[in-house]
Structures are given as structure tokens and as C-alpha cells.
Design brief:
Blueprint (H helix, E strand, L loop, with lengths): L9 E4 L2 E4 L8 E6 L7 E3 L4 E2 L1 H18 L3 E6 L3 H14 L4 E4 L3 H13 L6 E6 L5 H9 L4 E5 L8 H10 L8 H7 L4 E5 L9 H15 L2 E4 L3 H4 L2 H9 L11 H12 L3 H4 L4 E6 L3 H23 L8 H4 L3
Parallel strand pairs: 3-6, 3-12, 6-7, 7-8, 8-9, 9-10, 10-11, 11-12
Antiparallel strand pairs: 1-2, 4-5
Helix pairs in contact: 1-12, 2-3, 5-7, 9-10
Length: 324
């Protein structure tokens, strides 16, 4: 294991602590709800969903968060402004954990930001994300809000290497007048969670993982990944899953779904072992599998860094909850 020479920021977002030296704070786990084709969504544009099913998965994530000591966040993914407001209102009514404002539609994210600010939820909100595609209007909305926490997406379409990601964060990579880290601070975003941007296996995911070392070393901010997207986009795995869905050689029948699930869930420990601080682990219903797995990885990192570098863990942490 290892520690960083630079002081590492630790942010409190709601009741969750994120950041620090490896082994200091538990990995924060963010499960996605209302994503495209989520089984509990009935009308994505209007924000109509099965409230009982939604509450069940939110509470299950909290249950496993309490069990392992890994703080959790709800990654609220909405398809429209109308849906965003309804979904934030519901999620924050049934749970007091922090939440990510997320969408592929900028207007929906801005609507969620304004709603959270207006109703007094901004201290629990994380904007996902400040990135190279943000318009002036979107950036202005962030600046005009009381938002403190946001994910900074280090996706550089011109250069997916570590150097390309750092260039975007440090200088703006020719798109912005200053780097995204400095731009975000100028807008009042002082709690910065950098996502180096997961790319498919063979197309840059290795650099995304490796860049976490450099981001934490240069800036001291929290770093994490939605690493499950790498196996999800892996051509070999998708082919294997399809070929072995219902048939195959003796003993291989039905293995496709199992192998896919193992790779999908297990990928979430990669950022942890690389010294990162949070994981966007995908569908929130995967919490019962993800939390114990990441908790185990957290225990290994914390044990090593306590013994070798004197790092003291902060509560809550799996090593304090799962050692018996």
C-alpha cells in the first residue's frame, strides 16, 4: 500500500466523509436509481415510478451501508426536469443520505440543482458533473447556486492518457481558459470529487485508473470511478454472456450471466486498491453484493496503511465494523 506526500482533502457531504489518504476514510459507494430502463421506472419523462420498489432499494443500500461502514450516496439519474424534481423530492423524503444530480440532459441537471438549492437540500447535493461539454448557461447556474460539491469529469476526447486528463484539470486543454479544478473553485465548488472518466477495456480504462494517483498527488482532491462501465462495454464479455446465456458445453450452460455479474461487481474493488475514495458502482439494487466486497478491500488497505504508515481510520469504516 502507499500514501500521498500531499495533504489529502476530506469533505463532509451530508453525513458522508469522502477523501483522505488510502485507508483513512471508508470508500463512499454511490448506487444509481431511475437509470435508463430501470425496472421501477414507469414513465421516465414524467417521473412516474414504483415508489414502494424505489424505497426498498434505497433502504437496502442504507442497510448495507450501516452493516459495512461504507457511506453511501444515491445517484439520481433523471430524463427530464420534471422527473428530476419529483425524484429528488422522493429520494430525500425517504432517505437523508447525500445524492448525485445526474442526467444526460443539461436542463434536467440545472433544474435539479435549482430545486435542491431552493428547498434547502444543497448541502447534501453533488452535481454530476462539471465537464468539457458544459455550456456557459450550465456553468453560470452552478456559480449562481450555493453548491459546494460536484464531480469533475476528467474526460479529454483529444487525449485519453493520464497526461491528457491532467491537462484538462490543470489548464483546460484548450477548451476552457483555466483547468476544471480551478474553474470549479471559482464557481464555489470547494468539495471536488474527480472522476477520471471510465472508458472501455482496450480504449483507455487503464489510464483512467492510473490517473487517480496523479490527480490525488497534484491536487489532493477526492477521486473515484464508475468502473463497472468498463466490463459492461467489454466486447469479449458481452459476446460470452450472449453465447452462454442458455446453452453451451457441458457445465457451461447459463454461465454467461454469472460471469458478467462477477466481472461487473468485482470491478468495483479496482479503484479501492488504487487508493481512490469513491465508487459509482452502478444499479442501486447491486448494493448487497458491492458493499461487502468493497468493505473487504477497504479493510485490507486500512490494515496495511495503519501498519506501514501509521494511518488512523476514521469512523465509520469496515475495519471497525467487520473485523469480528
Amino acid at each position: 500500500m502507499f500514501v500521498f506526500d500531499r495533504k489529502q482533502d476530506i469533505y463532509e457531504i451530508g453525513k458522508a466523509k469522502v477523501g483522505g489518504q488510502p485507508g483513512e476514510c471508508a470508500t463512499v459507494l454511490c448506487g444509481t436509481i431511475f437509470y435508463a430502463k430501470h425496472y421501477l421506472v414507469e414513465d421516465a419523462d414524467k417521473g412516474i415510478f414504483d415508489k414502494k420498489a424505489a424505497e426498498d432499494v434505497i433502504k437496502k443500500q442504507e442497510e448495507f451501508s450501516d452493516l459495512t461502514g461504507n457511506p453511501c450516496m444515491m445517484q439520481i439519474f433523471s430524463e427530464s426536469s420534471e422527473a428530476m424534481e419529483k425524484e429528488i423530492a422522493f429520494c430525500t423524503e425517504v432517505s437523508d443520505v447525500p445524492f448525485l444530480i445526474d442526467s444526460t440532459v443539461a436542463e434536467a441537471k440545472v433544474a435539479g440543482l435549482k430545486y435542491a438549492d431552493e428547498v434547502g437540500l444543497i448541502d447534501k447535493a453533488v452535481y454530476n458533473s462539471i465537464n468539457i461539454s458544459c455550456s456557459e448557461a450550465e456553468l453560470e447556474a452552478i456559480k449562481d447556486s450555493r453548491l459546494e460539491a460536484a464531480i469533475i469529469l476528467a474526460f479529454n476526447p483529444k487525449d485519453s492518457t493520464v497526461a491528457g486528463k491532467i491537462d484538462l484539470l490543470e489548464t483546460g486543454a484548450g477548451t476552457f481558459e483555466k483547468g476544471l479544478v480551478h474553474l470549479a473553485r471559482d464557481m464555489g465548488v470547494t468539495k471536488q470529487m474527480c472522476d477520471p472518466a471510465t472508458l472501455p477495456i482496450g480504449a483507455g480504462v487503464g489510464s483512467a485508473v492510473a490517473s487517480g494517483f496523479v490527480v490525488k498527488s497534484k491536487f489532493g482532491i477526492a477521486v473515484g470511478l464508475g468502473i463497472h462501465n468498463a466490463p459492461s462495454a467489454w466486447t469479449w464479455l458481452k459476446t460470452f454472456r450472449k453465447e452462454h446465456a442458455t446453452k453451451g458445453p457441458a457445465g457451461w450452460e447459463g454461465l454467461g450471466a454469472d460471469v458478467f455479474s462477477i466481472c461487473d461487481i468485482a470491478s468495483n474493488i479496482i479503484p479501492v486498491m488504487a487508493g481512490q475514495d469513491f465508487v459509482l458502482y452502478g444499479p442501486i439494487e447491486n448494493a448487497p453484493k458491492v458493499f461487502p466486497l468493497v468493505g473487504m478491500a477497504d479493510m485490507i488497505v486500512a490494515e496495511a496503511n495503519h501498519a506501514e504508515h501509521g494511518i488512523e481510520t476514521k469512523e465509520p469504516h469496515p475495519i471497525l465494523k467487520m473485523s469480528a
